[in-house]
Amino acid sequence: xxxxxxxxxLFTTLVLGFTxxxxxxxxxxxxxxIIPAQPVDATRGxxxxxxxxxxxxxxxxxxxxELEAWIKRQPPHVVVRRQPAVLNDSWLPLTRAYYAxxxxxxLERLHAEVFKAIHRERIDLNDPNxxxxxxxxxxxxxxxxxxxxxxxxxxxxxxxxxQLSARYKITGVPAFVVNGKFQTSAYLTGGHKELFRxxxxxxxxxxxxx
Length: 210
What we know:
The protein is an alpha+beta fold. Helices cover 57% and strands 11% of the residues.
């Protein structure tokens, strides 16, 4: 009887310990609710969508062309914001690379090219000097880029990216957050087509509330 009670206690502890995770995964099936909801940067009347990504993530690279096409189809009331995720410190170099390109006005032109360089050309852009040389070969001022990469501003943004990843409880990428309330991904929806269907539905839902 004592052994049975011990086993029941252990089982109950395990179930209770995992309940929040299971509940989150089952809630809505295609997305999970963020509790508490997080503040958004979008202006009043807009719906904000944040993409958490990492340049070395092959799934992010595969999704990028479809994501770019989806972004171009969005109406004016939808604001899509890319956000480098930092799940551990090894992700910081490419996070700084993202913000450095942004600082020198080259992010829009080279964002997709970074994915291509890493995943198709197998260039190690995680190494700062390799990244500077790669960008310089594409017309970027190497000195200005290096200064931006090592600047206080970029370091601060990289630190904030790490904080945001923790605050939104990001455990994998690419992940999407709608209006600070809902998180979804191709993993949850079952594919890219389904991901965009769920994003569209959540955007419409939030648009109706506003």
